[in-house]
Amino acid sequence: MIETEQLTRCYGSLTAVDSLTLRAEPGQVLGLLGPNGAGKSTAMRMIAGFLAPTSGTARVCGHDVRRNPVAAKKALGYLPEGAPSYGEMTVREFLSFIARVRSVGGDKGYRRFDEVISRLQLEEVLDQPIGMLSKGLRRRVGLAQAILHNPPVLMLDEPTDGLDPNQKHSVRMLIDAMARQRTILISTHLLEEVHALCNRVAIIANGRLLADATPAELERQSRYHGAVSFSAQGSGVSREMLARIPEVASVEVDPLDGRVTVFPREGKPILEEVQTLLRTQNLEVSEIQLERGRLDEVFRHITTSAHPGPAA
Amino acid sequence: MSAVFAIVRRELLSYFVTPVAYVFMVIFLVLAGLLTFYAGDFYDRGLADLQPFFDIHPWLYLVLVPAISMPMWSEERSSGTIELLLSLPVTIAQAMIGKFVAAWLFIGFSLMLTFPIWITVNYLGDPDNGVIFAGYLGSWLMAGCFLAIGACMSAATRSQIVAFILTAAVCFLLLLAGQPQVLDFFQDALPAKMLGALAQLSITRHAAAIARGVLDLRDVTYFVASIVAWLAAGVALVDLKRTR
Which of A105, A169, B152, B207 could form a cystine bridge with A109, CB 3.0-4.6 A? Predict the structure, then answer.
C-alpha cells in the first residue's frame, strides 16, 4: 500500500508537489498522469526516499518515509526515471549487487534471481556491461532491479518511455502479471498506457491532484462519451436531419475525412436513433462507432482548465 | 552490515573494471619509487630506514588521493545513480562508510605493493621493521584522512573536477598550516595558543612523526577523528541535498 498525506515539495519559490494526498491499495495499478513537469517524478522520488518532503509525508506499507525510511525502502521496488544504473558493471554484477544490498540470498535468492532474469529475458546479456546495452535492455535491467526482492509495492517512473512498441508490450504484460497481489504506482504521460495498464488514474498538473478516478469514470466526463460517429458517402446531406433528432445536441463533421460525430444531450442514448435515421436515408455507411469518451480530451480539459482544484 | 559490504564490493569492483585502479597503482608506485630515490636521498643518507619514503607520502597523496575520491558521490549525482542508491534500503551513513572503506582498502593495497622498497632496505642494511610497519600504518591512516576530505568534497558537488580541486586545496592548506614558514608568518599576528592549535591542526606535524615511525596515540587520534569528522560532514551534505 502507498499513502501520501499532504505531500509537498518546494524548490526555492517553486512548489513542485503541492499537498498531494493519494492512496493506492494492493491489487491496484494507479497511474500518475500529468504533463511534463507536473511533479510526477518529484512525488515518486519523495515516496522512494531519494528526496525529503518539504512538508507532509508518505507511507509505504505503513512505514513512514520520514521516520522509518529503511523499512519503507525495503518494501518498495523502484524504477527511477531513465532507469539509471552503473554502466561499467555487467548485468550480472549489477543485479548481484542489488541482491546483496537487499539481502536476497541463499537458495531462494538464486531461484528468484533466475526467475527475474528469465522473466525479463536478460539471459543473453548477463555478462555484458550495462553501459553497452540498448535503451530497451537497460530499462529491462532497471525493472529487474526493482522486482528482484519481490516487493509488495512497486513504483515505476515512466517504465515504457523510449521503448519500441514490442518492448512496450512486453513491459506492460509484465506489469499486468505482477499487478494481482501488489500495489503498483506508475507515472506516465501516455494515455494509451492508462488504458492498457491502470485501474485508477490520478491526474496531476502543477504539483496538484486534479482528478482521481477510474479510466472509465474519466471517459464519462468526456464530451465524446455516448457520441456516435460514422463515415458514410454523401453524409453531408443528412446533417440537418440528424440535428433534428430530439436527443441530439450537435453534429460535427471532420473537414478532413468527412467523418460525422453526433453528440447526445446529457448522456441520452442515441445510437439506435442515429442508425434508424441512416437506414431510412439509404446512406451507405462504411463504419459506425459508439464512442466511449476520449481520455486525451478529458486530460487536456482537466490539466488546462482555468480553475485548478481537486475535482471528481 | 551486509549492505555496507555490498557497497564496498561494488565500489572496489568499479575501480578494477575501469582503468582507474591500474593507472593509480602504476603512477603511485612509480612516483613513490622515483621520489624516494631522487628527492629523498635514499642512498646518500646512508641510513637503513624508510624515512625519505614516508616523507614524500603526504605530497603523493595530495595529488593522487583526490583522484580516487572525486567520483565517490559526484559521479553518482551526475549519472543519476544516486537516486537508485538512496532508494535502496541503506542509510546515507552506510553508503558513505561503504564507499570510504572501499577506497581506503584500495589505497592500502597500493601501499602494500611498495614492498620492494622494504625488501631493498632490508637487503642493504638492518632496519627496525617495527618502525617501518608503524610508518606504513601511519601512512595508511593519513591516506584515510585525505580520502575522508575527498569524500566530503565529492558529496558537495556534481562535478568531479571541482571535487578534485577542492580536495587538493583543503589537503594542501592542512599540509601547509604546519610548515615553519607559515607558522613564522603568523607568529606576530596570532597569539601563541592559536599558533599552537594551528600547528596541531596541520597534517604535516602528525605526518612527520609517522615518517619517523613513531605511531603516537595523539597522531592516531588526530587522523581517526579527522576521518570521522569529514565523513560525518559528507553525510550531512548528502542529506542536505535531499531537502534542497
Answer: A105
